[in-house]
Request: fold
Amino acid sequence: MAGAVHIPDEAETRAKWGGFAFSPAYKAKADIFIGRYPAGRQQSAVMALLDLAQRQVGEETQTQGWLPVPVIEYVASYLGMPYMRTYEVATFYTMYNLAPVGRFHVQICGTTPCMLRGSDDIIAACKNRGLVKGGTTPDGLFTLNEVECMGNCASAPMVQINDDNYEDLDYDSMTAILSDLAEGKQPKVGTQLPGRHTVEPFGGATTLQAMVDKNHDYRGDW
Amino acid sequence: MPKVTVDGLEIEVPAGATVLQACEMAGKEIPRFCYHERLSIAGNCRMCLVEIAPGPPKPQASCALPATEGQIIRTDTPMVKKAREGVMEFLLINHPLDCPICDQGGECDLQDQSVAYGRGASRFEENKRAVTEKYMGPLVKTAMTRCIQCTRCVRFAEEVAGIEEVGAIGRGENMQITTYLEHAMQSELSGNVVDLCPVGALTSKPYAFEARPWELKKTPSIDVMDAVGTNIRLDSRGRAVLRALPRINDDVNEEWASDKTRHAVDGLTHRRLDKPYIRKDGKLVAASWVEAFDAIKAHWTGEAAVLAGDQVDCETMFAARALAGTSMLEGRQTGLAYDTSSLSAVNFNTTIAGIENADVILLVGSDLRREAPLVNTRIQKAIRKRGAKVFAIGPVTDLTYKVEWLGDDLSALTKAPKALTEALKNAERPAIIVGGGALRYAGVHGAALAFAKKFKLVRDGWNGFNVLHFAAARMGGLMLGYAHDGGIKKLAAASPTLAFFLGADEVDYSLFSNTFKVYVGHHGDNGAHHADVIMPGAAYSEKSGTYVNLEGRVQRGERAVFPPGDAREDWAIFRALSDALGKRLPFDSVDALRGEMAKVVPALGVEGLANYGWNEPSLSAEVNGKIADYPIKDFYLTNAICRASETMQKCSSELVHGTQILEAAE
Reply:
């Protein structure tokens, strides 16, 4: 089954991750999240803590991080909840990686708006760069996954790489981004179109034009 | 009390009732998969859709909707019919059409409801989803492709069994029900998920491919694996009992049964005693009934001691007592010698259902999870529903819920720690449960009674003093006088010339080296090994018997099958032997025996809770020492029947010893 949960070899991950514990910096962050909920309701912080744990694993492995089973269990014990309940959360959300990923986790949107705007080209750019869907490149740099809509339809097609979005892509800009990342450079985040800042219409505003320079009260026009 | 109208019928429903319950009260059947009376409401199968006015013009899930004043509920409109057909069609999209090879066939909710409410054919032409099988332990067989994700098993594990090891992983089409990392469910109640599963995803592993439900003869019976007195139904075909299922009795077992109750039945066909034996030159030799009787007659002096085992019915004990004609009676095989002058002081007075209402519970040397799993679930319920606080004296063990351990020193009974006294001071319905692990120490019984007095555990409308037995025969035995002053040791010291052992397999037989030992029982276990004469009797499935459970509830079970070979019902053996010994017993049938028994102990003649009143014996309350351990070391191997059961042996090696090895390695 395509999206079925696959849990990596347990004995190996246990040996490697059995002694996992939050570093002082992450522990401080975790306790802030727990502190946001009333006493006795610390389990509500499970999603934040799983994310923190994944990030710490990422730092320790120089990747985007993932959640080995002992790490999930550590988070469960940290919050005093049964392993199974934490495990359910970790397997439900796709943002938690249950298998190791590379340094750059390329999540490419292939849902209808992005597809109409040319996400196939973006996938082709990745493919020509050696990325394989659901796999990591041999150098450990890139992991490619196709995901469902990430809400950037106005600037489609888009990819999410680690915590950043890259929008208004085409074959060339995607290739350039991947090259930059591989060379250790930080490409421009957000829209890749020159002259566009966010998701405003191409060529300037088409509505609410009187608002461009100053605040305008439209109520009289209705 | 809101008034609602169901299909034109106006009824009044209790406040807080759901629409589904309202429909049931009006006599309408609402199909459902995920809804279960004893579990929390999930509302995820959508099968219980009905039409409701006032409300949005669409079908609504009745199980999760509260019934309110003036609601007009319709269960018979075209919209409801279409909605049910739609849900059914969706549920069947990924359900395999493997009913002919599915063990649930014939008792499957999905089968029944698709016949009753489905549209007859599917329009789905794509491939079906397939899911790998999951490992859930030695008792639960899985075929997860059949799962419709009602999550009843998940809710049962969490809410009733108290183990949060079952859950749903993944999402959407990839959602799967599994145990944590596919480890076996560490629960004494895991078999219940098989009954709960509305489809064939979870079926019974030992019973796999044994029989179809319509082939089976169903006999109501009473379980003898522990003292709860679980109401069961024995399903038999020919001469073999194939499975045991719980019957609903809200006062006793609700609708659950422990794994031992369910799965020890294969022990009924192994290691059976099917003909009489006589010991000749140190070896047991098969004999005829007449020879066995003659051998006993040679040692008959007009009276005999009787030692009852843990699974004996009252009829057997009464017949043996009538023949033996002495006060040399004992049923507490392991040597307990607590005072029995007042039965109310050794009874579970709060009652099994009543303990749910307790707000502070003190366990004294009582490993409830192994000694009475179904009482444990009641305490789990008391904690979940009413926020009860549980304290315990004894070695720390996992009882599946939060317990405040007060150490294993018994002096905590006389000098209660502050946390306990504080909790008891504000408690409205406090209770103490004294287990066999503590009763073996001198003074504990008295100290517990003194504790009850000091903290007023017995008050108006509430009796919080409980002793927890874990032998099915115990309360019946105590009512029939099977308690010798000073216990079994003192009885043995009197060195009786002849003693009957009624299925007594936990007795220390070295105490009786000078006694001619007659074993009357059904399994070739410890008792039979030491016997001089063996008279083969009937197991609980093979006789109609009266049992008294730990709360003093008199219950009767019926005979499902006949005893094997030359074995006979135990009371009939004593009746025949009495003829041979020239002391004819005055009954020729079970009914006549029961009549005689009711004359001697009237309470045993009436089914239901026996009334022992409440009177405290004055006992020494001096205690010291520590509770060393709990009596039950291996939940799955506590009596002759389960020791003969392959399933129970498998459970024991995997669930009890498997974990021990793991823990040692860690």
